[in-house]
């Protein structure tokens, strides 16, 4: 329930690319499903479930181990928020989160909404620098304390010609506020499966977060 926004077409395309999808619930499952080779943490409302997400420290540790082992982890919006060190809800309450990304995600009253033209800023398993995708943002949170030297996932281009960094690439983690529909670039699903196949465990499996 905390990560309930994902295009069904993304899951279909991952399946066509060879992934076996397995759901899990970050609010309650103590670990990742057996044999997982890659993780998707989609958009949603982690601030609503912040206490349960925060208390599930065993899953935090499992995600950190997966990252240390080089498993591809793809996080969009709510997934990015969950992977920061702390989530601060609308009442100012702070909850410790996974900590794969420095800084904290803080709920505000300002809605960030709109379509985005995004250019990959970093060579990684999902995209090569210079490749372009279109997506959208819809969130009330801000990522605070993001180090300036952290490699961004994208450069965002707006109609006024401004270019700003967005998201981050940290090892095998690709995290961003931008939501993508994989059918706009089907090779993204193929690359996810290929990256999972190259990780050090035994069976190829894609994993998605709860109710996505």
Molecular structure report:
The protein is globular. The chain is α/β, with parallel strands linked by helices and 212 residues long. The chain contains five helices and 13 strands. The strands form two sheets. Strands 4, 5, 6, 7, 8, 9 and 12 form a seven-stranded mixed sheet that branches. It has a six-stranded mixed sheet with strand order 1-13-2-3-11-10. The longest helix has 12 residues, at 57-68.
SSE blueprint:
Blueprint: H1 8-16, E1 21-23, E2 39-41, H2 50-55, H3 57-68, E3 73-76, H4 78-83, E4 84-88, E5 94-96, E6 101-120, E7 132-144, E8 154-157, E9 163-166, E10 168-170, E11 173-176, E12 179-180, H5 187-197, E13 206-208
Parallel strand pairs: 1-13, 2-3, 2-13, 3-11, 4-6
Antiparallel strand pairs: 4-5, 6-7, 6-8, 7-12, 8-9, 10-11
Which labels suit this protein?
212 residues, alpha/beta, seven-stranded mixed sheet, six-stranded mixed sheet, 5 helices, 13 strands
Alpha-carbon distance between the two ends = 8 Å
Fraction of residues in helix:
10-25%
Total beta-strand segments: 13
N-to-C SSE string, H for helix and E for strand: HEEHHEHEEEEEEEEEHE
Helix and strand content put the structural class at: alpha/beta
Q: C-alpha Rg, in Å?
A: 16 Å
Please, what is the average pLDDT? 90
Main sheet: strands, sense, barrel? 7 strands, mixed
Residue fraction in strands: 25-35%
Shape: globular
Poorly predicted runs:
199-212
Number of discrete helical segments: 5
């Amino acid at each position: 329930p905390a990560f309930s926004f994902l295009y069904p077409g993304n899951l279909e395309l991952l399946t066509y690319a060879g992934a076996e999808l397995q759901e899990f619930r970050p609010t309650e499952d103590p670990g990742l499903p057996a044999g997982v080779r890659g993780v998707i943490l989609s958009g949603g409302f982690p601030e609503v479930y912040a206490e349960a997400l925060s208390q599930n420290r065993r899953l935090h540790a499992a995600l950190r181990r997966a990252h240390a082992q080089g498993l591809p982890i793809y996080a969009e919006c709510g997934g990015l928020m969950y992977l920061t060190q702390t989530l601060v809800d609308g009442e100012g309450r702070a909850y410790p989160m996974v900590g794969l990304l420095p800084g904290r995600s803080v709920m505000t009253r300002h809605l960030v909404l709109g379509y985005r033209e995004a250019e990959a800023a970093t060579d990684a398993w999902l995209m090569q620098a210079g490749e372009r995708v279109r997506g959208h943002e819809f969130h009330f949170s801000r990522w605070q304390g993001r180090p300036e030297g952290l490699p961004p996932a994208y450069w965002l281009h707006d109609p006024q010609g401004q270019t700003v960094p967005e998201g981050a690439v940290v090892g095998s983690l690709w995290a961003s506020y931008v939501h993508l529909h994989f059918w706009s670039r089907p090779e993204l699903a193929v690359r996810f499966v290929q990256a999972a196949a190259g990780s050090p465990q035994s069976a190829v499996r894609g994993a998605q977060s709860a109710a996505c």
